[in-house]
């Protein structure tokens, strides 16, 4: 992708034009992020009530007992959205699905350990371990360039 800056003193506010051969999912996602302007924020319910959680603070999001939780350095929060909805909203350069029940922030992974069964163990920044199922390992390898 090529990015250019052109100065135009006639404009009162910035204007962004996205040019592509076709409107792909990546192009739509880029346009949505530009239109939103800010980083994605998720509402999480904790002991102190509702907290606004910026995506940069998220370590992992996972499903457990028919509920969806978000882990940050500050603790664990209950979410009211489904995993597939969160996966669509979060930045795909930062977040990757590792199983049917878990999404992780790739910037919060400290180490990857491969097992003989074909799964990956991810050691997260908060000390938690997350396991990538065999189905999602090829996507992880591609994401990390392994």
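Sequence proposed for the structure above (146 residues):
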């Amino acid at each position: 992708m090529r990015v250019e800056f052109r100065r135009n003193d006639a404009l009162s506010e910035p204007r962004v034009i996205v040019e592509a051969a076709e409107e792909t999912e990546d192009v739509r996602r880029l346009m949505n992020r530009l239109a939103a302007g800010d980083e994605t924020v998720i509402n999480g319910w904790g002991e102190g009530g509702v907290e606004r959680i910026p995506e940069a603070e998220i370590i992992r999001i996972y499903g457990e007992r028919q509920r969806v939780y978000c882990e940050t350095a500050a603790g664990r929060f209950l979410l009211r959205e489904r995993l597939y909805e969160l996966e669509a909203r979060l930045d795909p350069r930062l977040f990757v699905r590792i199983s049917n029940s878990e999404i992780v922030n790739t910037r919060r992974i400290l180490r990857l350990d491969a097992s003989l069964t074909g799964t990956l163990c991810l050691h997260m920044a908060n000390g938690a371990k997350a396991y990538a199922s065999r189905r999602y390992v090829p996507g992880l390898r591609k994401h990390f360039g392994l």
